[in-house]
Amino acid sequence: MKMPLRVCYKPCSTAVIEQLKGEGHELVLFFPNSNIHPEGEREKRKKHAKEVSKIYSCDFIFEEYDHKDWREFVRGA
After folding, report:
1. Residue 56, helix vs strand vs coil
2. Which pLDDT score is estimated for 77?
3. What is the pLDDT of residues 28-64, one digit of tens each?
4. Which of 1, 12, 65, 66 has the most neighbouring CB atoms within 10 Å?
5. What is the sign of the dihedral through the CA atoms of 65, 46, 2 and 57?
6. Which one-letter DSSP state was computed for residue 67?
7. Domains of the chain by residue range
8. Rounded-to-5 percentages of helix, strand, coil across the chain
9. How far, in Å, CA of 77 to CA of 71, rounded?
């Protein structure tokens, strides 16, 4: 069974990926992160997270960027 793992970008995910893969888990890296602003910064991080997925042979999925919706959600609108 595949295990989803929410990731932000390269440095903060590799140790966890190595640990879980070492325990035999098959991972799907999930990149939502509409909280990251500006969008260009988020795209750089998404690119790096996708590179990590290839290095560790993990599936990779992401949410479309919607910073406005994220801001409304955390504001409690």
Report:
1. coil
2. 58
3. 999 999 999 999 999 999 999 999 999 999 999 999 9
4. 65
5. positive
6. H
7. 2-75
8. 50, 20, 30
9. 9
